[in-house]
Write a structure and sequence with these properties.
Number of helices: 3
Radius of gyration: 19 Å
Strand content: under 5%
Structural class: mainly alpha
Helix content: 55-70%
Number of strands: 0
Length: 81
Amino acid sequence: MTQSRKKKPYMKAVVFGIFSIASYVLLFSRLEWVTEVYTKGGIYTVLPVTTALYFSFLHGAFASNVLDILGIEAAKSKSRH
Protein backbone atom coordinates (compact mmCIF):
# COMPACT_ATOMS: atom_id res chain seq x y z
CA MET A 1 0.00 0.00 0.00
CA THR A 2 1.49 3.30 -1.06
CA GLN A 3 0.90 6.27 1.16
CA SER A 4 1.11 9.65 -0.50
CA ARG A 5 3.31 12.03 1.43
CA LYS A 6 2.12 15.57 1.53
CA LYS A 7 4.82 18.22 1.54
CA LYS A 8 4.68 20.13 4.81
CA PRO A 9 4.15 23.90 4.45
CA TYR A 10 7.07 25.07 6.58
CA MET A 11 7.81 28.12 4.41
CA LYS A 12 4.16 29.23 4.34
CA ALA A 13 3.97 28.98 8.13
CA VAL A 14 7.13 31.04 8.52
CA VAL A 15 5.97 33.68 6.03
CA PHE A 16 2.52 34.05 7.57
CA GLY A 17 4.08 34.08 11.05
CA ILE A 18 6.47 36.87 10.06
CA PHE A 19 3.66 38.90 8.45
CA SER A 20 1.52 38.37 11.54
CA ILE A 21 4.21 39.48 13.97
CA ALA A 22 5.19 42.46 11.80
CA SER A 23 1.55 43.52 11.50
CA TYR A 24 1.00 43.37 15.26
CA VAL A 25 4.21 45.31 15.90
CA LEU A 26 3.16 47.97 13.39
CA LEU A 27 -0.35 48.20 14.83
CA PHE A 28 0.75 48.45 18.46
CA SER A 29 3.61 50.84 17.76
CA ARG A 30 1.11 53.30 16.25
CA LEU A 31 -1.68 53.03 18.82
CA GLU A 32 -2.17 56.77 19.18
CA TRP A 33 -2.66 57.20 15.41
CA VAL A 34 -4.86 54.10 15.19
CA THR A 35 -7.10 55.34 17.99
CA GLU A 36 -7.34 58.81 16.48
CA VAL A 37 -8.22 57.65 12.97
CA TYR A 38 -10.35 54.61 13.83
CA THR A 39 -12.66 56.63 16.10
CA LYS A 40 -13.48 59.41 13.63
CA GLY A 41 -16.69 57.77 12.45
CA GLY A 42 -18.20 58.09 9.01
CA ILE A 43 -16.26 56.29 6.29
CA TYR A 44 -13.49 55.55 8.82
CA THR A 45 -15.74 52.95 10.47
CA VAL A 46 -14.66 50.53 7.75
CA LEU A 47 -11.06 50.57 9.06
CA PRO A 48 -11.58 48.56 12.27
CA VAL A 49 -13.63 45.98 10.38
CA THR A 50 -11.02 45.71 7.63
CA THR A 51 -8.25 45.43 10.21
CA ALA A 52 -10.10 42.67 12.07
CA LEU A 53 -10.62 40.73 8.82
CA TYR A 54 -6.95 41.19 7.90
CA PHE A 55 -5.71 39.85 11.23
CA SER A 56 -8.28 37.06 11.14
CA PHE A 57 -7.03 35.96 7.71
CA LEU A 58 -3.37 36.12 8.78
CA HIS A 59 -3.97 34.19 11.97
CA GLY A 60 -6.11 31.58 10.20
CA ALA A 61 -3.52 31.03 7.45
CA PHE A 62 -0.69 30.76 9.97
CA ALA A 63 -2.60 28.41 12.27
CA SER A 64 -3.73 26.21 9.36
CA ASN A 65 -0.17 25.77 8.16
CA VAL A 66 1.10 25.01 11.67
CA LEU A 67 -1.62 22.39 12.14
CA ASP A 68 -0.68 20.84 8.77
CA ILE A 69 2.95 20.66 9.86
CA LEU A 70 1.94 18.98 13.12
CA GLY A 71 -0.33 16.57 11.24
CA ILE A 72 -3.47 17.63 13.08
CA GLU A 73 -6.66 17.27 11.06
CA ALA A 74 -10.32 17.90 11.80
CA ALA A 75 -12.28 14.87 12.89
CA LYS A 76 -14.44 13.40 10.19
CA SER A 77 -18.06 13.05 11.26
CA LYS A 78 -19.98 9.86 10.62
CA SER A 79 -22.89 10.17 8.23
CA ARG A 80 -26.35 9.21 9.54
CA HIS A 81 -27.52 7.72 6.23
